[in-house]
Amino acid sequence: MDKSEYIGFNITDLSTGKASRMATYLFAHSGKWMAELAGNSIRVDSIGDGKAIVTFPAIAEVDMKEFMSMLGDE
How many helices (H) and strands (E) does the chain have? Predict the structure, then answer.
């Protein structure tokens, strides 16, 4: 039987410091990148001043306890 759990949250609801630490952690642990143009394309949105927001799907295998501790109090 599958013991997977789904926990959803919006990273924009986190404080800047917490979101930055979480993004760094996930980037460091994402060994499998997925970008299939058919269903999960990379999206680039220009925000002006020569900058853009890039949205892309990625998978990161993490230590559950360590990751969840990041969601706690700062």
Answer: 2, 4
